[in-house]
Specification:
The chain has one domain (16-147): Immunoglobulin-like. Helix content is 22%, strand content 34%. It has helices at 2-11, 18-28, 85-93, 144-147; strands at residues 37-45, 48-52, 55-58, 63-68, 75-78, 108-112, 119-127, 130-138. It has a four-stranded mixed sheet with strand order 2-1-4-6. Strands 3-8-7-5 form a four-stranded mixed sheet. The model is unreliable at 1-10 and 146-152 (pLDDT under 50).
Length: 152
């Protein structure tokens, strides 16, 4: 009996499997091996808009999914005047500077960071009169292990 308990305890990864799920979701989208899919949840109440989390740390090759969790219309736009030339050109040339309207619960916009330059990708989410802001940090952080935790 003690063996079974020890065996079961040893099977669960410390992150509850979040890292494995993020890798599997990235693979399903055709992202490169080892890439993660990070998630930003879009929602709101009244005239308020929420984008959670407001900060994502990612590496080139990862993906960032912006997903609506309510029945309101949401849009995501990267703030061209707050981006470096390289980041802006990457987003424009890849057609990712702004999302189409996300009109139903569960609709999503996926930012694909293949060949993305290192930098800060400032974004704004608008929905039903409210605005929320955030940033996707693409690069190698000081502690590489901390950025590989799935954001959801």
């Amino acid at each position: 009996m003690a063996f079974l308990a020890l065996g079961a305890w040893g099977c669960d990864p410390p992150d509850g499997g979040a890292m494995a799920r993020a890798r599997e979701e990235a693979r399903a989208l055709g992202l490169p091996a080892g890439a993660l899919l990070h998630r930003v949840t879009l929602g709101g109440k009244g005239a308020q808009e929420h984008a959670v989390p407001t900060r994502i740390q990612a590496f080139p090759g990862d993906g960032v999914e912006f997903r609506s969790v309510d029945h309101r219309v949401h849009t995501v736009e990267f703030l061209a005047d707050s981006l470096t030339v390289e980041v802006r050109e990457f987003l424009e040339s890849s057609g990712q500077i702004a999302s189409p309207p996300l009109v139903t619960r569960g609709s999503r916009f996926v930012l694909r960071l293949q060949n993305a330059p290192v930098g800060l990708y400032f974004f704004m989410s608008e929905g039903h009169g409210g605005t929320a802001f955030g940033v996707v940090e693409v690069g190698i952080p000081a502690d590489p292990d901390s950025s590989r935790v799935h954001s959801s």
